[in-house]
Design a protein that fits this description.
The structure holds two protein chains of two kinds. By secondary structure, chain A is of the alpha/beta class. In chain A, 37% of the residues lie in helices and 14% in strands. Chain A folds into two domains: 27-148 and 303-318, Rossmann fold, CATH 3.40.50.1370; 150-299, Rossmann fold (3-Layer(aba) Sandwich). By secondary structure, chain B is α/β, with parallel strands linked by helices. Chain B has helices at 75-84, 103-115, 139-145, 160-173, 184-187, 196-201, 209-225, 237-248, 259-263, 285-297, 312-315, 332-343, 347-352, 356-362, and strands spanning 2-6, 9-12, 17-20, 23-26, 29-33, 44-47, 52-55, 57-59, 87-92, 120-126, 149-151, 177-180, 192-193, 205-206, 229-232, 253-258, 302-304, 377-387, 406-416, 419-423. The chains are: A alpha/beta, B alpha/beta.
Chain lengths: 319, 425
């Protein structure tokens, strides 16, 4: 399989062969995924939620890092496409026995996998796997280190398009720990490609990458200023281990200055929507009244996530 | 054995020689340039028409991986690689297992290397026991065993008091200390330059300040102790500026750069290419330009390969988990010529960075073709293109960012102590 060296997830025809990152994906590929997901969103509303698109195919959930939510949504999505799903939590089994990632992948390939859904703590791990799998196997990045979480980014775009109808007149704010966030990087790349004219990132300097400006975003350290007149607020999860240490003094101080509360949200446009990739730390990055409030679209995000993953898997299987 | 190398372009930067002339070698020494001495009958004649004849190359950092890492590479394989690259003298860092902190280890290494009759090996001894940065090594004994300098290799000396003491003790005997300037805390967990690429790829960063902070400390201590300092593998624009200023005030400091940093920058990481996971990390284009400017104006004294053969298993892992380093001793010459070609530097100036200027850092009498000097000679074809095919490299490490690339300039003969030890078939 010839893959574009400048973007090793695209085949000779510019179609998706793997989904590794949203960076560099053309807008028409993103729209194709979002449009396909619309039809699957209908499937998930039906009594019989299955379609036979992946019948006879084997999807391996290869999770080198623990995850419940993402793994489950991929599993549900694959099953609704009638695929056989095998879940492997590898972080404790063979890795501790010294088996390399590539050995694990080679073994599973020998079991005639058609698709690997990969999560790994190291940025770039899915690229390495994609480079070494047999040419008919598709790799989907389900989150790698701080690098990318493309299906999360896509479901966020789906959510925004669902509620706002377009991207090219939107102000979007991404709030919190940008430095360690693969979600934020995927969101920024997707929003840029889809034509969003103003992306803001809001956070303390310790939680922003050193060259965040190079991603084409406007940087704010004052959340009230940053939220002014935005149409979309995308909150990020603050990992527990970051809350007390060299990057942040305490969860309390973070909540006070960067937590999304009703009074801060009131600075955004009245019809602004609030997203969060989950799982939420209520009272740290988001107040419960906002998380459960009428501007929150956090639960619909989860539902759309299944449709997006169905769309990605069916497109990959068809290319 | 008497050898005549005829019709070559003889370049001896130290003696300011650049001319078409024959070189005559007898009993391991250079005996004449231009005209044969009376009664000279060559046993062997090498036709160097269209080739350059220069002093054997001197590489300030070649990891031979012995003792301790023989499963990655052996003295045999890496020495073979060195002479294929025209390198006739090399310094090896002490980061072996165990580290070169005992005279017996150094003697064994020198003995094993000598018996191969290939390049001359100059071990750099450990500055502290086990490179742990706590207890000083027996530097005087290690010097007697053959160490030419002392270093912490890639393990920074986190305790500034220990560093001060080590510099004072080394200065007592006038021993040079080679240091990599990298602040351990600022570089902690980092795997790539803390710049645009690391931001995009989500790789933990090592900021340039990790180098400049450590370098500032080292320079202050050098001023205080009078120790002779050599900074290994300079990587940042700020680092070049600090060395330039230190030299302006006549501090006894020299520095080198790794050849990969002369050509590559953070963008070459592409999509997580583990062969571009180097230490120090490949920095920005601006840093690379500053290193090149430092080479051009003499701030940087030498280029080395920082040769680090790595097992394929240690590179076929995610970028951040891959062992840092690249193999390079076989590519030192063509990559140095590439730099000269791209910047307009002349060939003698380029060769001086990998011959006599490197020799003066090592403190050895080598890197020139004076009458009576040891006949360490490199003959190369400056026009010949060849493909850096990883599998064809003699080094056991196939980890090179240049795999598959076309390079110009190929060694045809390497002579050590008057014996032809390598010949390109």
């Amino acid at each position: 399989m010839w893959l574009d060296p400048a973007n090793p997830q695209l085949n000779r025809n510019g179609e998706l062969h793997h989904l590794l990152s949203l960076e560099g994906l053309p807008a028409d590929v993103l729209h194709q995924i979002l449009d396909t997901a619309v039809s699957f969103a209908d499937v998930t509303q039906r009594d019989v939620k299955k379609v036979p698109l992946l019948r006879g195919k084997s999807v391996f959930n290869l999770f080198f890092e623990p995850s419940t939510r993402t793994r489950t949504t991929f599993e549900i999505a694959a099953k609704r496409l009638s695929a056989d799903v095998v879940n492997l939590a590898i972080n404790v089994s063979s890795q501790t026995k010294g088996e390399s990632v590539l050995d694990t992948v080679a073994n599973l390939s020998a079991m005639h996998a058609d698709m690997f859904i990969v999560r790994h703590a190291a940025s770039g791990a899915p690229y390495m796997i994609a480079k070494h799998v047999a040419q008919d196997i598709h790799v989907v990045n389900a989150g790698d280190g701080r690098h990318a979480h493309p299906t999360q980014g896509l479901l966020d775009m789906f959510t925004i398009r669902h509620y706002k109808g377009q991207f090219n007149r939107l102000r979007v704010a991404i709030v919190g720990d940008i430095l360690h966030s693969r979600v934020a990087r995927s969101q920024i790349h997707a929003l840029t490609t889809l034509g969003c004219p103003e992306i803001r990132v809001i956070g303390p300097k310790t939680l922003l990458p050193s060259r965040v400006n190079s991603l084409g975003v406007h940087v704010y350290h004052d959340m009230r200023e940053g939220l002014k007149d935005v149409d979309v607020v995308m909150m990020l999860r603050l990992q527990n281990e970051r809350m007390n240490g060299a990057l942040l003094p305490s969860a309390q101080e973070f909540y006070k200055y960067y937590g999304l509360t009703e009074d801060k949200l009131a600075l955004a446009r009245p019809d602004a929507i609030v997203l969060h990739p989950g799982p939420m730390n209520r009272g740290v990055e988001i107040d419960s009244s906002v998380a459960d409030g009428k501007q929150s679209v956090i639960l619909p995000q989860v539902t759309f996530g299944i449709a997006i993953r169905m769309a990605v898997m069916s497109i990959l299987a068809g290319n | 054995m008497k050898i005549q190398i005829k019709n070559g372009r003889l370049i001896d930067p130290k003696n300011g020689l650049d001319t078409i002339a024959d070189l005559y070698i007898a009993a391991g020494k250079v005996v004449a340039v231009g005209h044969a001495p009376a009664g000279f009958h060559a046993n062997r004649s090498i036709d160097a028409t269209g080739r350059i004849v220069c002093p054997g190359l001197i590489d300030l950092a070649v990891r031979l991986r012995e003792p301790g890492y023989e499963y990655i590479a052996t003295l045999e394989s890496e020495m073979e690689a060195a002479i294929a690259g025209g390198v006739t003298s090399l310094a090896c860092p002490p980061d072996t297992d165990p580290p070169l902190d005992e005279p017996g280890l150094v003697e064994m290494l020198k003995f094993r290397a000598k018996n191969l009759h290939q390049a001359h090996v100059y071990p750099v001894g450990a500055l502290t026991a086990g490179l742990k940065g706590a207890r000083l090594t027996e530097m005087a004994e290690l010097r007697d065993a053959g160490c030419v300098a002392f270093s912490q290799a890639e393990a920074p000396c986190a305790d500034t008091l220990v560093l001060l003491n080590a510099l004072e003790y080394a200065a007592t005997y006038g021993f040079p200390v080679w240091l990599r300037a990298q602040d351990a805390a600022l570089a902690r967990h980092g795997v790539a330059h803390d710049g645009e690429v690391a931001t995009r790829l989500g790789l933990p960063g090592i900021p340039s300040t990790a180098e400049s902070v450590a370098l500032s400390t080292i320079l202050i201590l050098a001023r205080e102790t009078g120790a002779r300092i050599h900074i290994a593998r300079l990587s940042s624009a700020e680092g070049v500026a600090l060395i330039r200023a230190a030299k302006a005030e006549n501090l006894p400091v020299s520095c080198d750069v790794g050849i990969h940093h002369v050509h590559l920058c953070e963008n070459d990481i592409g999509y997580f290419d583990p062969n571009c996971h180097l230490m120090p990390p490949l920095r920005s284009q601006r840093d690379r330009d500053a290193l090149r400017a430092g080479l051009a104006d003499g701030t940087v004294d030498a280029i080395c390969s920082d040769h680090t053969p790595i097992d394929e298993d240690q590179k076929q892992v995610p970028f951040s988990e891959a062992e840092a380093g690249a193999t390079g001793v076989e590519l030192l010459l063509p990559l140095t010529l590439k730099w000269a070609n791209e910047t307009g530097a002349d060939t003698p100036a380029a060769l001086s960075l990998i011959t006599h200027r490197a020799a003066s850092i090592l403190g050895i009498d080598a890197g020139h073709l004076s009458i009576g000097a040891s006949a360490d000679v490199c003959v190369f074809d400056p026009e010949r293109p060849w493909r850096a095919d990883a599998a064809a490299l003699r080094s056991q490490g196939k980890n090179t960012p240049y795999a598959g690339m076309e390079l110009i300039g190929r060694v045809t003969h390497t002579i050590v102590d008057g014996a032809v030890v390598f010949e390109q078939k």
